[in-house]
């Protein structure tokens, strides 16, 4: 247990987000996502929803401000304009934690292709369909670094 660290950020996940650099992606995956066959290292977060994980990760993780898109969700198959409740919650969390970023929608297989190039996949037990989110890490500015 550490002071000031969200309690669902386990040691493996803390190590992962600390090792990631500017421009690296992390996938927060729901229970149906094929995490183990995507390629990147999988970090288990059993018993945790994807929205709770997004909230926790974004307490320590800046989003990239140097690119037009920095967060992605999966489109609903057959209804690309639909925004599932879980995705609306992702948008609310991103807006509150990271600022004025819009989560872009990717077609299912385009989402899978992007996930294959991620640094890590966090496998949650989110049971709501389309509860998948990719976040691109930004720069930690000097004024954000602990100085003791």
UniProtKB/TrEMBL annotation:
The keyword Protein biosynthesis does not apply. GO terms for biological process: fucose metabolic process. The lineage of its organism: Bacteria, Pseudomonadati, Pseudomonadota, Alphaproteobacteria, Hyphomicrobiales. Pfam families: RbsD_FucU. PANTHER family: FUCOSE MUTAROTASE. Its EC number is 5.1.3.-. The keyword Calcium does not apply. GO terms for molecular function: D-ribose pyranase activity; fucose binding; L-fucose mutarotase activity. This is L-fucose mutarotase. InterPro entries: RbsD-like_sf, RbsD/FucU_mutarotase, RbsD_FucU. It is an enzyme of class 5 (isomerase). Keywords: Isomerase. Gene3D superfamilies: RbsD-like domain (3.40.1650.10). It catalyses: beta-D-ribopyranose = beta-D-ribofuranose; alpha-L-fucose = beta-L-fucose.
């Amino acid at each position: 247990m550490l002071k000031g660290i969200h309690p669902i950020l386990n040691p493996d996940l803390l190590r992962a987000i600390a090792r990631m650099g500017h421009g690296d992606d992390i996938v927060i995956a729901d229970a149906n996502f094929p995490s183990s066959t995507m390629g990147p290292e999988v970090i288990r977060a059993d018993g945790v929803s994807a929205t709770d994980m997004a909230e926790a990760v974004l307490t320590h993780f800046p989003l990239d401000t140097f690119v037009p898109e920095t967060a992605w969700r999966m489109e609903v198959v057959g209804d690309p304009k639909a925004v599932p409740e879980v995705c609306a919650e992702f948008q609310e969390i991103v807006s509150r934690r990271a600022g004025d970023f819009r989560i872009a929608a990717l077609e299912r297989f385009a989402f899978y292709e992007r996930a294959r190039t991620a640094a890590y996949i966090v496998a949650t037990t989110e049971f709501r369909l389309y509860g998948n989110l990719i976040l691109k890490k930004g720069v930690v500015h000097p004024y954000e670094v602990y100085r003791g």
